[in-house]
Amino acid sequence: MQITVKMFATLMEYLPEGAVKNTIQVQVEDRTTPYQVIDQYRVPRSEVHLVLVNGVYVDEKSRDLPMKPNDTLAIWPPVAGG
Question: pTM for the full model?
Fold first, then answer.
């Protein structure tokens, strides 16, 4: 299935070649989870703070739930500063 992956701030370095700005469309296996995508791109889970699927927040317990075709996965690191 095809999904869109967006990574922001310091996580953009983990995007593969071909990413435009901070976004890439990728093919993944059916029922792929957000954590599987995060692991596939070798993003340390400790650097993942905010995860959204189609603009909806996904808490840590739900990041093992499967996504659907054409979903958009957006990932942010923790925010530093005050």
Answer: 0.92
